[in-house]
Amino acid sequence: MQRLLLGIAILFVVSLLIFIGTEILPGDVAQAILGQGATPELLENVRVRLGLHDPAPVRYFRWLGNLVSGNLGASMVSGADIGQLLGERVWNTFMLAGVTALIAVPLAILLGLLSAIKPNSLMDRTISAVSLSLISLPDFLIAIVLVMVFAVKLSWLPAIANLRPGLDFFEVARMMVLPVTVLVFTVLAHMVRMTRTAVINVLSSPATEMAILKGVPRWRLLLVHALPNALAPIANVVALNLAFLISGIVVVETLFNFSGLGRLMVESVTTRDIPVVQICAMIFCTVYVLLNLFADVISIVSNPRLRYPK
Amino acid sequence: MREPNPITPVLEVKGLCVSAQNRKKQLTPIVSDISFSIAPGKVTALIGESGSGKTTISLACLGFARAGCVINAGEVKLGDVDVLRLSNAQRRAIRGKDIAYIAQSAAAAFNSALTLNRQVTETAVINGILSQEEATAKAISLYRELDLPEPETIGDRYPHQVSGGQLQRLMAAMAMICDPRLLILDEPTTALDVTTQIEVLRSFKKLIRNKSTSAIYVSHDLAVVAQIADEVMVLKDGVEVERGSIDNIINAPQHEYTIELINAAHIMPEQLPAARTPLLNADSSIALPLLRVETVTAGYGRSHKYLALHDVSLEAYSTRTIGVIGESGSGKTTLGRVISGLMNVKSGSVSLEGQPLDDAIDLRDRDQLKAIQFAFQMADVALNPRHRIGKILGRPLAFYFDLSQQAIDNRVAELLELVELPTEYALRFPRELSGGEKQRVNLARALAAEPKLIICDEITSALDTVVAKSILALLVELQERLGVSYVFISHDISTIIQMADTIAVMREGQVVAYGTTAEVMTPPHHPYTQLLLDSVPAMRTDWLDNLA
């Protein structure tokens, strides 16, 4: 409950920062929207329409009020309702992130466990080396290399993931392979390392020795004894990486021409569509806060000491 | 298989050698050429100090060696089977089923994320010996046999929801779930308070007798072992020094090391040490106390919500020792923290030589800080592992006295001599010292400030008895030479009686008995003092049985 309130407070601060960042910073918003060639009449027109003559706090609370009541406003460029504009793209982005998470998280935990069984074994060192090299390469580079190999040279997969209505499942899946792979690569290493460390930590405890001495088999030791104790640190790093994934998505969506939230934000920045940028930023931040909240809940649920205080 | 053959021993160990192996595969022996056997229904004790190899031997009986160790010779025959020749899977199959292990610290050995029942019944269920329901029913009957409260439901709790003594008994239930032929108990009562130790010991004894299980009992405490064991093997540095029946060992020890162990053990003094005369001033008027703690109430949490000290008053005199005794949770460490200014008080006051001391350490002036020093229980943790001893001791010197580097070096050498360590130790790191030596450095650091009072918080409880005895002797000698006053905090009543001029007995944050050693220790005692005195195991085999 306390954490939920804290999360809401953080979102409030975030909204303030976004507002300050996009509206209060020096520079004329109307000018920014219309560009250098705008006539004074047009500028004045825009200012009135945006209510820019009102003092900043008034504008902030009007914006926040609209946001909370679900009235997202209209795009400055197309005039379309932002709610409609977002709908499909939010879905696409969350599908991309969701599929990535569904693959990356179990894979990371599995690889982490495999490394932890025998630290410094050949398997451990191979997993470490591969995952660390993947995280050391920037995501756009991985993306370009993958496109070169699989789309350009081998022509196995499409180079872009331009989701349109009317595509069947198989086509969508084919388009998603490369973007998802790139995203999995970028978030995998950190989670693998953290799982490995957390599990090794638990395995070196007296409780583990006790379990070995009472004849618990190796796999059971890992899954039943070690994993529940390692869950809290793993949940934290998973949340952190999924949040990181949300920001990594901006790059990947742009590269693959994927019609999602990240690309919408980039486009809106170039067309100076400030209301859309604000909303996109708010959505990204909300997801970030929610993921961290989720990690906190997991660490409480997985720890009986916190679940059942004395 | 369940019925042990009365002629053949349950376990026979022959020529066991375990060595530590470094990265270059070089071996350093930890235990060598250990042989013993255990008859059905008998208990053999392995006695020794830390590093004597007693835990290593008991783990080897399970076919287990800790990381970095290898079992390089010998045989461990359980019935007809040599455990050391079994494959890993076969060893796993006998662990828990035929040989069960009870670890020293139940709090650390239980998995905090699983319920107690789940852990207690695990071995029986995964080996397919019992179904989950049968195993749970059996666990409940074991809980009852071990005198655990609420036997039907206690197993649904998590380890942190029961007390340390209960956990230790739950571990015994876990060990007995498959009716093993051999039970290994590794210092099972060492981490417990004395009054809890009795109850646990009694439960264990009852269990072993009722089930006529054979057992290996590992301990450093001969008096405890005397209550439960039939045979004793005394170990030193991984080698057997003496073996015999428990009666022979405690009544007619042959080897000088066994005699040393018996003498250093916590035996109640038959008579109280001679009381020192009350402290007098030069004009032979009675001296005022050095430190006065008056009606102090303090606690933890927001605005002292969880009280740890309740209305505590006591006095410490210069060149004298006040002993503070209590079990875990009695508030004795909190008292030390309040005196040293590490903790704020809710009400009450602390004064030094009549001057009130601020309860916050950063508001005390340098002379006040200098006057009261603290020696911690865990010397390993209290010494910075990356600093040489010279730097550790030089730091308070530089802080309190503004000395030149040359003067600091000289003073460090003096301090090391004072605590009977070679002056070359200034160049060593803490890891290059033994536990007793680290505790001496810890004392030297407290002495560096030339304090009037040193708070000694359980400074001997992590040490082996022989080493602890030498530290106590050093404390007495330092007091005679330097006139320093001690607040000596301990859970061990025999140490307190030996060291203290006045005694404060603490329980649940309150001082329940307070006076000179003679006053507190002469009957009639406060009931709690009596309980503490009665709980110290005597070096006789019938002590536990005769206890009311």
Count of the domains of chain B: 2
Number of helices of chain A: 13
**Low-pLDDT regions of chain A:** none
What name is given to the CATH topology of the largest domain in chain A? MetI-like fold
- On the 0 to 100 scale, the average pLDDT of chain B is 86
CATH topology of the largest domain in chain B: Rossmann fold
Quaternary class = heterodimer
Overall morphology of chain B: globular
Instruction: Name the helicity range of chain B.
Output: 25-40%
CATH superfamily of the largest domain in chain A: MetI-like
Output the CATH homologous superfamily of the largest domain in chain B.
P-loop containing nucleotide triphosphate hydrolases
Quick check: average pLDDT of chain A? 81
Structural class of chain A: mainly alpha
Structure keywords:
heterodimer; A: 310 residues; mainly alpha; MetI-like fold; 2 domains; 13 helices; B: 548 residues; alpha/beta; Rossmann fold; six-stranded mixed β-sheet; 21 helices
Secondary structure topology:
The complex is a heterodimer of chains A (310) and B (548).
Chain A: H1 2-24, H2 29-34, H3 40-50, H4 56-68, H5 82-117, H6 122-136, H7 139-153, H8 169-203, H9 206-213, H10 218-255, H11 261-270, H12 274-301, H13 304-307
Helix pairs in contact in A: 1-12, 5-6, 5-8, 5-10, 6-8, 7-8, 7-10, 8-10, 10-11, 10-12, 11-12
Chain B: E1 11-21, E2 27-38, E3 43-47, H1 54-60, E4 69-78, E5 81-82, H2 88-94, E6 99-102, H3 106-109, H4 116-126, H5 132-145, H6 164-176, E7 182-186, H7 194-211, E8 214-219, H8 222-226, E9 231-236, E10 239-245, H9 246-251, H10 256-264, E11 291-300, E12 306-316, E13 321-325, H11 332-340, E14 347-352, E15 355-357, H12 366-371, E16 372-375, H13 379-382, H14 389-401, H15 405-418, H16 435-448, E17 453-457, H17 465-482, E18 485-490, H18 493-499, E19 502-507, E20 510-516, H19 517-521, H20 527-535, H21 543-546
Parallel strand pairs in B: 3-8, 3-9, 6-7, 7-8, 13-18, 13-19, 16-17, 17-18
Antiparallel strand pairs in B: 1-2, 1-4, 4-5, 9-10, 11-12, 11-14, 14-15, 19-20
Helix pairs in contact in B: 4-5, 4-6, 6-7, 14-15, 14-16, 15-16
